[in-house]
Amino acid sequence: MARIKPKQLLIQSKTKKGPSRISYSSIITWNLIVVLVVLSLYATYRHWHHRPAFEAEMDLPRAENIERSEDSTKISTPSYVIMDTLKGSITIEISKDASAGVVDRFINLCKSDYFKGMPFRHVIKNLVIYGGDFDLNGAAHEWILKAKASGENALSPKHEAFMIGTTRSPNNKGFDLFITTAPIPDLNGKIVLFGRVIKGEDIVQEIEEIDTDEHYQPKTPIGIINISLIQEL
C-alpha cells in the first residue's frame, strides 16, 4: 500500500468539509419571525371577524352624542332674566311659546348690555310700564292713552298682568320693553309678549306708584340698572 504523504493528507482534510452548524441566534430569530407572523394573522382575523359588532357598538355613542348636542342646543337659550332696578330685582320667565326671533334678539341685546341703564320713560298706573331709549312711537302711544282714558280692563286669560313684551313694529330699530300691571285689552295687535314676571311683582307695583307728570313720565328718573340671564333659578 502506498503511503500518503503528509502534504496530501492536509490537502484532503481541507477539501472534506463537515456539515455546517446553525447558530442559536439564527434559530431564535426565525422563531420570533414565525411567532410575529402568526400573531399578525390572528389579529387580522379578529379585526375582520368582530368588525360588524364593533361598528354597532360605536353607533350607540354616536347617537347619544347627537342627542346630547341637540339637547344642549335646546337648553342653550336662557329660561330666566333678572332685571335690577332702583326699587329692587324683578325675575322674568321667558316664554317657550314666544316668537323665536323676538326672544333671540332680546337675549342677544341682554348679552351686549343694551338694557343696562335703560330708563322707564312712561309709567301708567294700573296699566303698563314702558322702558326704552326713545319715546313711545305713534301706535303704542295711541293705544296706551286710549286704554288709560277709557279705563278698559277686560280680563283676558292669556294677557294678564305682569307680562313682558315689546312693540310689534317692523320699522322699530331699537327694542323697547313693556311690563303690564293690569290685563290689557286688544294686546295682540300692539305688543309681542315673550315673558312674564314670576318674582318681584311688588317691585313692579312700587315702580308704577312713582309720581309722573301729565304725560305719564316719571318725575324722578328710574330704569334698569342691570339685566342678567340665567338658565335655572
Summarize the entry for a quick read:
With 233 residues, the protein is of the alpha+beta class. It has helices spanning 6-15, 24-75, 100-111, 138-150, 201-208, and strands at 80-85, 88-94, 120-124, 128-131, 163-167, 177-180, 191-199, 224-230.
Reconstruct the topology from this structure.
Elements: H1 6-15, H2 24-75, E1 80-85, E2 88-94, H3 100-111, E3 120-124, E4 128-131, H4 138-150, E5 163-167, E6 177-180, E7 191-199, H5 201-208, E8 224-230
Antiparallel strand pairs: 1-2, 1-8, 2-7, 3-4, 4-6, 5-6, 5-7
Structure report:
The protein is of the alpha+beta class. Helix content is 41%, strand content 20%. The protein contains five helices and eight strands, in the order H-H-E-E-H-E-E-H-E-E-E-H-E. Strands 3-4-6-5-7-2-1-8 form an eight-stranded antiparallel beta sheet, with helices on both faces. The chain is rod-shaped and about 120 Å long. The N and C termini lie far apart (122 Å). The relative contact order is 0.16.
Q: What are its keywords?
A:
single chain, 233 residues, alpha+beta, eight-stranded antiparallel sheet, rod-shaped
Radius of gyration: 42 Å
Q: What class would the helix/strand composition place it in? A: alpha+beta
β-strand amount: 15-25%
Low-confidence stretches: 53-63, 68-74, 152-158
Secondary structure: helix percent:
40-55%
Pattern of helices and strands: HHEEHEEHEEEHE
- End-to-end Cα distance: 122 Å
**What does the average pLDDT come to?**
75
- Tally of helical segments: 5
Beta-strand segment tally: 8
Shape by Cα distribution: rod-shaped
Tell me about the biggest sheet?
8 strands, antiparallel
Describe the strand arrangement of the main beta sheet, using strand numbers: 3-4-6-5-7-2-1-8
